[in-house]
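Q: My labmate handed me this sequence with no annotations at all. I'd like to see what the chain might look like in three dimensions before we decide whether it's worth expressing. Could you predict it?
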Amino acid sequence: MKWYVYVYYDKDHIPYYVGKGCGRRCRERRAIEVPPKERIVRQYFQEEEQAYAKEKMLIAFWKR
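A: Here is what I predict for the chain of 64 residues:
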């Protein structure tokens, strides 16, 4: 499966970032702190549209 939604968690396991990507996107450097890999959770999807819908849902749920 190519597409995924990823969630960054802080040391207290509180989510602070939700994103959608493929490949190594969840590990790329950016303005927001990238946590260690054990604090990144990914959920995979067959289609980009499915991943996008899940990303929107999680952002709305956590307000992140």
